[in-house]
Amino acid sequence: MEYFVAIEDDRQGPFTEETIREKAKxxxxxxxxxxxxxxxxxxxxxxxxxxxxxxxTKKQAPPLPVGGGSPKSSGPLYxxxxxxxxxxxxxxxxxxxPKFFDKLAGIFVKAGYWALPIGTLLSILxxxxxxxxxxxxxxxxxxxxxxxxxxxxLNYSVLKTIPALEKLIDDTETRLGxxxxxxxxxxxxxxxxxxxxxxxxxxxxxxxxxxxxxxxxVFLFFGIQWVTFCRHPEMLNVKxxxxxxxxxxxxxLISFLFKSWLKVLPIYFGLxxxxxxxxxxxxxxxxxxxxGEGTALFAICTFALAGVASIPLLTYFMFLCLYFIIxxxxxxxxxxxxxxxxxxxxxxxx
Length: 350
Known about the structure:
alpha+beta, Dna Ligase, domain 1, 4-stranded antiparallel beta sheet, 9 helices, elongated
């Protein structure tokens, strides 16, 4: 069983019980450090979860000098930006909840699952209407049933691939020596998304249209999702605080970024598939009303629908190729590390 441990206000892990015992002996964690895993309702002190665990005896800190103040609230003046942004992100933690993300992803995925069959039926309806107007059965066969068969195949691949993407994340462990990069990326993602939202708000007011505001809201929404991954890397099966080489750290960062895309892909899929099907409906209504642009809009949306529906399968294949390269490089780094340790252990032959 593995546990997350709070070390210096940062959640690290998950670690096995044996690893935690090693950290306790080394003085890295103490009895007052909190720990948690998915079998527990809340964070508990290590001394309560592991009552038999032995901790290193820490030297009693001397009294603070006169006017010393609280180390956590003061600190050097040059670190004021770090303390400020850490405080801001901690206050907004309710926005970056893994449970909220999982519920949201479930809603969008189900929307996408339903939208694809609806788009398939609309393609058949489009083929029937076009065949009647053009008095050609070939239109019904090619554009109606042909696209319907293609979309049904893509629908099948989506239903198989999206759960497989989640399993890939669970089966591929990523190790990072420090959470520094995810923390920095979370701040950039949040400020960027918030800045786009504010810019969209001003653009909507100035241009008297809601389109800039909608675009800004979408950027803010996706920025929040990326912040959630950065602040909760365990969602991506990423362990921080591990002992890694610089090469392994780089591979870990690449893996972290790609797994972030894998994790958020179902939301992108559900959102865009739903929007495309709505546009399909709009084009079909215009076509039935005798408007020529409705036919072109429907055809474009049908091509877009097929393109978006193929993204999960393509992403699955890309992830396999990427991890083949990562595993290959990791194996080379491991061999070099073993070779170096063997050379150090051999006596000098001079």
